[in-house]
Amino acid sequence: MARFCPLFSSSSGNCTYIGAGDGGILIDAGVSAKRIEQALSDREIDPAGIAALFITHEHTDHIGGVRVFAARYGIPVYASAGTLCGMEQAGACDHVDTRNMADGDEIAVAGMSVTAFPTPHDTAGSTGYVVTTPDGRRLAVATDMGVVTDRVRRVLCECDAVLIESNYDRRMLEAGPYPYPLKRRIAADTGHLCNDDCAAVLPTLVQSGVTHLFLGHLSPHNNLPALAEQTAKNALDTAGLRAEADYRLRVAEPVSTQPVVYI
Length: 263
What we know:
Layout: E1 3-10, E2 13-20, E3 23-27, H1 33-42, E4 50-54, H2 60-63, H3 66-73, E5 77-79, H4 81-89, E6 98-100, E7 106-109, E8 112-118, E9 127-132, E10 138-142, H5 150-157, E11 161-165, H6 170-175, H7 180-187, H8 195-208, E12 212-216, H9 225-238, E13 248-251, E14 261-262
Parallel strand pairs: 3-4, 4-5, 5-6, 10-11, 11-12, 12-13
Antiparallel strand pairs: 1-2, 1-14, 2-3, 7-8, 8-9, 9-10
Helix pairs in contact: 8-9
């Protein structure tokens, strides 16, 4: 049985735990090692049981705790070549075992296999990950992407659980306090995914077999959890899909208070 929990999910920091058996991995480590350790311990997960870190891209809210956590537990850090370069420039790789993970690579770790796929974001090598557990469960993390490409859609449709970005509401972004260049960056095809575009793909995912949906990386300034959730639910309702019967929908919290979900 797979264990899944977005520990942190926002522009202030991101970190997702996925485990099976006695081991697990983290996807991103965008808060301090101390906070990650506490979040794991709160869920009765031994931080020493984390076998590897997989990094989506080099923005601070995804790498802030990498160097300390990886060095403390002596675990490898996997990322694309472009992401590793950016991390090195940011000093996030000092005294850390870093390993290049190219598109389509499959890494065996903690009894699971992890594969990488590209996501459209304004970094050198932004990546999403699919984790396959020993019992065949497939769980994906796909955030920080301006659009859902055909490749991303195909990958997610093959999964049981998906953490997908629902970053902003278009109207809130347009009326909000951000300067115009930043608004353009967020709304670009290499920026972030809005509620409407996220919601539009959810029926296809559920109809393909995805049963657990997590909405992640919500903006604290340009979104509301209830708004993201309702936008998603409206799209699923319109497609004739039923909550609990066909899918389970959750909003990932900036600092999660939720327990591990078993899938």
